[in-house]
């Protein structure tokens, strides 16, 4: 067992792809230590990705790619920004709402940070400051991981046999809680709207009407799941088709070269994720064979659920600083879930805690992906972006505490639905 973990750490230190370390460590434990037949290991690799629910991943990735290459974000922002011009901090609050809704359509934090950031960075920098805008867009993009449909929720559900639909529904309220906390902070630190700013009801209604075809996509996806019209996997297909047809047929924005690029990017990213899923499945099987979950149960036997969740938050925030959310979910969720179950913690509650923690990891130094997305788009120094993040980090932590210790705020929704 020791040498298996050592192999994983050595691979990470050497800068190798994490799936190489996971596969190497898993193969060592299974083949050398446990002496499992190699054909069983190969079967495990296949079984890790041969799950119908995982077909939702490329669908949502493709939908996000189509949205990123079209005017979805611009129409989304313009549909409700005019309503907030007289509100204190109205422009950055509009950016938060745009991130929430874009996340509800794509499930991709980098896509949300980059796409909404491109549209709103200049106006937010003008209304507040450039430092404020850098920190806000780097952190607000992480809302896309929490707001369903979330790819990380799909991966957590796959790794722990949780219901994807129930996890989606459980994620709606936490995303709103984080959004409310961010909007409250923005209102507090922003200046009042100027007297020269006028609210135009006719213009606001016109822009909302023009953006209505974009705004109804989250309603279709989440409403369809809630009402049982389609499964979460089918919702991914619906989202991809809608995200293609709307800009292609009605807005005339998606040309053949762009469509080809979207499909190419989605195929590449899907391959990367599925390789990681297969490798993490072997590693998780190795840990299970080595009785690691049982050892953790015994080690944490005297711990209360409250203390366990506190410890888990600390560990996940640290892990999120160094690992991407996909890797962290696939490696840790299968190990932690049995321990949480033994303490009476609901699996959906655990999934939301995982998701919010790893969303925070998207914008924490040194390896938060959103930091590099913002750096590449706006050509600012990484140090400047990292210095702009701390106030928003604190806001996310406050929201995380609420979400962690008051699960009744959001678990009622999946329990009321027919999703099991």
From TrEMBL:
GO CC list: plasma membrane
Membrane disposition: Multi-pass membrane protein
Gene assigned in the entry: dctM
Protein name, entry field: TRAP transporter, DctM subunit DctM
Keyword tRNA-binding recorded: no
PANTHER family the UniProt entry points to: C4-DICARBOXYLATE TRAP TRANSPORTER LARGE PERMEASE PROTEIN DCTM, SIALIC ACID TRAP TRANSPORTER PERMEASE PROTEIN SIAT-RELATED
Keyword Cell inner membrane: yes
Compartments it resides in: Cell inner membrane
Record GO terms (molecular function): transmembrane transporter activity
Main location class: membrane
Transmembrane regions: 6-33, 45-67, 132-158, 164-188, 209-229, 235-252, 273-292, 304-323, 328-345, 351-373, 385-406
Source organism, top-level taxon: Bacteria
Keywords of the record: Cell inner membrane, Cell membrane, Membrane, Transmembrane, Transmembrane helix
Domain TRAP C4-dicarboxylate transport system permease DctM subunit: 6-409
């Amino acid at each position: 067992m020791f040498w298996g973990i050592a192999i994983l750490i050595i691979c990470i230190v050497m800068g190798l792809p994490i799936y190489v370390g996971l596969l190497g460590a898993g193969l060592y434990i299974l083949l050398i230590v446990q002496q499992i037949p190699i054909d069983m290991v190969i079967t495990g690799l296949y079984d890790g990705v041969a799950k119908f629910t995982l077909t939702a991943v490329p669908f949502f990735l493709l939908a996000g790619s189509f949205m990123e290459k079209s005017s979805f974000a611009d129409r989304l922002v313009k549909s409700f920004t005019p309503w907030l011009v007289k509100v204190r901090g109205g422009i950055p609050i509009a950016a938060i709402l745009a991130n929430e809704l874009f996340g509800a359509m794509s499930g991709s934090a980098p896509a949300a940070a980059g796409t909404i950031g491109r549209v709103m960075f200049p106006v937010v920098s003008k209304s507040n400051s450039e430092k404020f805008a850098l920190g806000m867009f780097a952190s607000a993009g992480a809302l896309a991981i929490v707001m369903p449909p979330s790819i990380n929720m799909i991966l957590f559900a796959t790794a722990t046999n949780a219901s994807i639909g129930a996890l989606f529904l459980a994620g709606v309220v936490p995303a709103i809680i984080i959004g409310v906390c961010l909007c409250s902070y923005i209102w507090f630190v922003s200046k009042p709207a100027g007297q020269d700013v006028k609210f135009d009801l006719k213009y606001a209604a016109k822009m909302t009407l023009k953006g209505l075809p974009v705004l109804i996509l989250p309603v279709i996806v989440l409403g369809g799941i809630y009402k049982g019209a389609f499964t979460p996997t089918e919702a991914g297909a619906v989202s991809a088709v809608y995200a293609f047809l709307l800009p292609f047929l009605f807005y005339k924005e998606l040309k053949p070269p762009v469509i080809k690029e979207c499909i190419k990017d989605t195929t590449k990213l899907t391959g990367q994720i599925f390789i990681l899923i297969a490798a993490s499945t072997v590693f998780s099987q190795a840990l299970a064979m080595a009785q690691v979950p049982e050892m953790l149960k015994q080690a944490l036997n005297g711990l209360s659920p409250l203390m366990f969740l506190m410890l888990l938050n600390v560990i996940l925030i640290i892990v999120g600083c160094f690992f991407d959310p996909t890797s962290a979910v696939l490696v840790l969720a299968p190990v932690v879930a049995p321990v949480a179950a033994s303490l009476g913690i609901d699996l959906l509650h655990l999934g939301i805690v995982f998701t919010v923690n790893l969303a925070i990891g998207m914008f924490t130094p040194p390896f938060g992906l959103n930091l590099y997305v913002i750096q590449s788009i706006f050509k600012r120094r990484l140090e400047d972006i990292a210095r702009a993040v701390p106030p928003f980090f604190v806001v996310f932590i406050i929201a995380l505490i609420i979400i962690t210790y008051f699960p009744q705020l959001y678990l009622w929704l999946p329990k009321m639905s027919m999703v099991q």
